[in-house]
TrEMBL record:
<protein>
    <recommendedName>
        <fullName>Glycine--tRNA ligase beta subunit</fullName>
        <ecNumber>6.1.1.14</ecNumber>
    </recommendedName>
</protein>
<dbReference type="InterPro" id="IPR008909">
    <property type="entry name" value="DALR_anticod-bd"/>
</dbReference>
<comment type="subunit">
    <text>Tetramer of two alpha and two beta subunits.</text>
</comment>
<keyword id="KW-0547">Nucleotide-binding</keyword>
<keyword id="KW-0648">Protein biosynthesis</keyword>
<dbReference type="Pfam" id="PF02092">
    <property type="entry name" value="tRNA_synt_2f"/>
</dbReference>
<feature type="domain" description="DALR anticodon binding">
    <location>
        <begin position="653"/>
        <end position="749"/>
    </location>
</feature>
<dbReference type="InterPro" id="IPR015944">
    <property type="entry name" value="Gly-tRNA-synth_bsu"/>
</dbReference>
<keyword id="KW-0067">ATP-binding</keyword>
<comment type="similarity">
    <text>Belongs to the class-II aminoacyl-tRNA synthetase family.</text>
</comment>
<dbReference type="InterPro" id="IPR006194">
    <property type="entry name" value="Gly-tRNA-synth_heterodimer"/>
</dbReference>
<keyword id="KW-0030">Aminoacyl-tRNA synthetase</keyword>
<dbReference type="Pfam" id="PF05746">
    <property type="entry name" value="DALR_1"/>
</dbReference>
<keyword id="KW-0963">Cytoplasm</keyword>
<dbReference type="GO" id="GO:0004820">
    <property type="term" value="F:glycine-tRNA ligase activity"/>
</dbReference>
<keyword id="KW-0436">Ligase</keyword>
Length: 763
């Protein structure tokens, strides 16, 4: 079977685009080949900074001939229908169609369509140019004189050559001939830009890969990553150091070089006074270099860094390492300046007194100054939700309310909430936004804050993803919940909810974070209570803003007019009452919608943990707002249904529920209560006592939140329910007996409904 080799060589492709672009190329080409009637055994993509490559093995040499009989309209059909049939079948006239007969439907047209197969070379020559011209780069460009012409080729960087060879392993492959915007396909590529810029003639992939490696190009990105990682570890170890692993940086660096050469650079020890996170980010962001640490150290860094060059220098890389060291030192000098500046006083302290008083800040402390400035500058959080300062006030009030619920000291929660966003005004976070929170913690410890307060400044952002850890300190928990609740409830009040795949404010992530925090806290944190607290903070802030605007609108009244002042007071009181009533009226549907949103997030989370979706649906009710209780119910129900008693009881209770539902739908009478005097069968007598016992004991167990005990209480129903359905006819001819037996089924449903809606469980 023939193999296909395709290479698209260009100037340097941005590293962040390479992996996806290679995958897109493989999918577009293989999909196109299959659609054209070809098959293949395997396909693999490769990429370097200067090329995208495809190796497709076992491609069929020719597509099959296609024969198709396409049924058309009746011979008596209108002309428009016949013309439509001709167009769809590719016929020039109705004379080219055949007439078939059907005993019932009469005569109708049939088109016998035959399409001869095509050679793979013709298909490839047609397909590749179309893919190149429509390639989905995030950003692309035009270049050269041809760029002035409409419809000229766009590519991520100027496309320089195309290799396209096709043929079996036992024969000399042929060049698939085509042209893309003046670039003709061939069998010639080029090696490393500096080490081996000469032309290289290639045949098939194995030949291509080996010749490129000889020309200082490693085509396999995963192998380049392994080379960089292994060489970096070995070089660090040889110098008594450890490499600080960074998978994201490794991916990026492997996309910057075709022939990786690992070197070591240094900077002055004095820069190690900067926090390690800042050093690492400075070197990573500006020079794409790895940092190292002394062997056995977890936090402290060394003054050596690892860089990856794209050339083998004659001096062993000394000048390259020296040049990178100069740039690193310059960048670290900036970082040191930011670090020192953040610990000093702000130049505009006199303008911050009002904000300091509003938040109870101590302007002798650097972090307090930054919080005062954040409020003073009126930095907008959202146009409809106020400034960052106003948001911090809401989070502050909310954190104080939540603190007792999670075992935190309210004063510490208050202090942590006040300082939570202060580091947004620091120089380091301004340069490296990803350090928000982490720098707040460091600056808080430097100015003598409680360790719990300092931890909350970093941890209140967590968890930021499914693999991120959940805050454990009670102060961190209270501020993290307050921060996320204010965001969610706030955006719900202004009707900015996620829609479809769009979630610009990351509200799904915030809700999932709250779910994980609540479940990790293992405490009682009903959502209704949390929503009410968040709404109170938002309501007060909203009312105050609107009242201020209303007062301003009444400024036209003469200040010396007593009646006018009285009118203003009355109007303000009426307006305030109206605003608060408006908020109350909106609260109930808003909270119901939010609870439904949290239920969806909880379902996603529990399914990821392995819970069955039908068990979750069986347990959740629209008003259920205790996430921990829901989770415990699901766990207990799952364990119970894994037992033989559980499986059999499920079948029996579903049968009871189905019979009852069917009779209720028909309007059949169901007794209000079960009357033992109407029992005529031993099986119904034997069921009556256990079902009453199950209703009582399961209900008490649910009230005690002992769901395992509730399941055990239900398990006694297994045998009597089975016996009842085996020996008793529910739809007895006697109306009173039938109504009584249906009431007994209703008692079974009542017993199980205390735990879950068994009708929603599969099985």
């Amino acid at each position: 079977m023939p193999d296909l080799l395709l290479e698209l060589r260009s100037e340097e492709i941005p590293a962040r685009m390479q992996r996806k672009a290679a995958g897109d190329l493989r999918k577009m080409l293989t999909d196109g080949l299959v659609e054209a009637g070809l098959t293949y055994e395997a396909a693999r993509e490769y990429w370097t900074p200067r090329r995208l490559t495809l190796d497709i093995r076992g491609l069929t040499a020719r597509s099959k001939d296609v024969h198709e009989d396409r049924k058309g309209p009746s011979t008596k059909a209108p002309e428009a229908a016949i013309q439509g049939f001709l167009r769809s079948a590719g016929l020039n006239s109705i004379a080219e169609a055949h007439v078939h007969s059907d005993p019932k439907k009469g005569d109708f047209y049939v088109a016998h369509i035959s399409k001869p197969g095509r050679s793979a070379e013709d298909i490839i020559a047609e397909l590749v140019p179309a893919i190149v011209k429509s390639f989905p780069w995030p950003k692309s460009m035009r270049w050269g004189p041809a760029s002035a012409k409409p419809g000229s080729l766009r590519w991520v960087r100027p496309l320089q050559s195309i290799v396209c060879t096709f043929g079996p392993e036992t024969e000399e492959p042929v060049v698939v001939d085509f042209e893309v915007d003046g670039i003709r396909s061939g069998n010639v590529t080029y090696g490393h830009r500096f080490h081996a810029p000469e032309a290289i003639t290639v045949r098939r992939f194995d030949d291509y890969a080996s010749k490129l490696e000889a020309a200082k190009v490693v085509i396999d990105a995963e192998r380049r990553k392994e080379m960089i990682s292994a060489d970096a570890r070995n070089l660090a170890f040889a110098n008594g150091l450890e490499l600080v692993e960074d998978e994201g940086l490794l991916e990026e660096v492997s996309g910057l070089v075709e022939w990786p050469v690992v070197l070591m650079g240094t900077f002055e020890d004095t820069f190690l006074n900067i926090p390690s996170e800042v050093i690492r980010l400075t070197i990573r962001a500006n020079q794409k270099c790895f940092v190292t640490r002394p062997q056995g150290s977890e936090d402290a860094l060394s003054n050596h860094f690892i860089l990856t060059s794209n050339i083998e220098a004659k001096d062993g890389g000394k000048e390259i390492a020296h040049g990178n060291g100069k740039v690193v030192r310059a960048r670290l000098s900036d970082a040191l300046y930011f670090w020192n500046t953040d610990q000093g006083d702000l130049p505009d302290l006199d303008t911050l007194k009002r904000s300091a008083e509003a938040f109870g800040l101590d302007l002798k402390k650097p972090l307090d100054q930054r919080m005062a400035r954040l409020d003073h500058l009126g930095v907008t959080f959202h146009a409809k939700l106020g400034t960052q300062g106003q948001r911090v006030q809401r989070i502050r009030g909310l954190a104080r309310e939540i603190a007792p619920l999670v075992g935190a000291e309210p004063k510490l929660a208050d202090r942590a909430a006040v300082l939570a966003k202060a580091d947004l005004q620091t120089e380091v976070v301004g340069e490296f936004p990803e350090l928000q929170g982490a720098m707040g913690r460091k600056y808080a410890l430097l100015q003598g804050e409680s360790p719990s307060v300092a931890a909350a400044l970093e941890e209140h952002y967590k968890p930021q993803g499914p693999s991120d850890r959940v805050p454990a300190d009670p102060v961190s928990v209270s501020v993290a919940l307050a921060d996320k609740l204010d965001t969610l409830v706030g955006f719900w009040t202004i009707d900015e909810k996620p829609t479809g795949s769009k979630d610009p404010y990351a509200l799904r992530r915030a809700a999932l974070g709250i779910v994980r925090i609540i479940l990790s806290a293992r405490g009682r944190l009903p959502l209704q209570t949390l929503f009410d607290a968040a709404l109170r903070q938002l309501e007060e802030a909203s009312v105050q803003r609107k009242l201020a605007a209303f007062e301003a609108s009444q400024a036209a009244i003469d200040s010396g007019d007593v009646d006018g002042e009285q009118d203003v007071d009355n109007a303000l009181a009426a307006y305030e009452a109206e605003l608060r009533k408006e908020t109350i009226d909106r609260a109930a549907p808003l909270k119901a919608d939010l609870i439904a949103f949290f239920h969806d997030r909880l379902k996603v989370y529990l399914r990821e943990l392995g819970a069955r979706h039908d068990l979750i649906d069986a347990v959740i009710t629209p008003e259920a707002d205790d996430l921990l209780t829901i989770t415990r119910r699901v766990e207990a129900l799952g364990k119970f249904l894994d037992t033989e008693d559980g499986k059999n009881l499920l079948a029996g209770t579903k049968r009871a529920a189905n019979i009852l539902a069917a009779e209720e739908k028909k309007g059949t009478a169901v007794a209000d209560a079960v009357d033992p005097a109407l029992f005529s069968e031993e099986a119904e007598k034997a069921l009556f006592a256990p079902v009453n016992q199950a209703v009582s004991e399961a209900g008490q167990a649910v009230r005690n939140e002992d769901f395992s005990a509730a399941m055990r209480a239900l398990s006694v129903l297994r045998e009597p329910v089975d016996s009842f359905f085996e020996k008793v006819l529910v739809n007895d001819e006697d109306v009173a007996v039938r109504a009584n037996r249906l009431a007994l089924l209703a008692r079974i449903r009542a017993a199980t409904d205390q735990v879950a809606d068994f009708s929603k469980i599969a099985g």
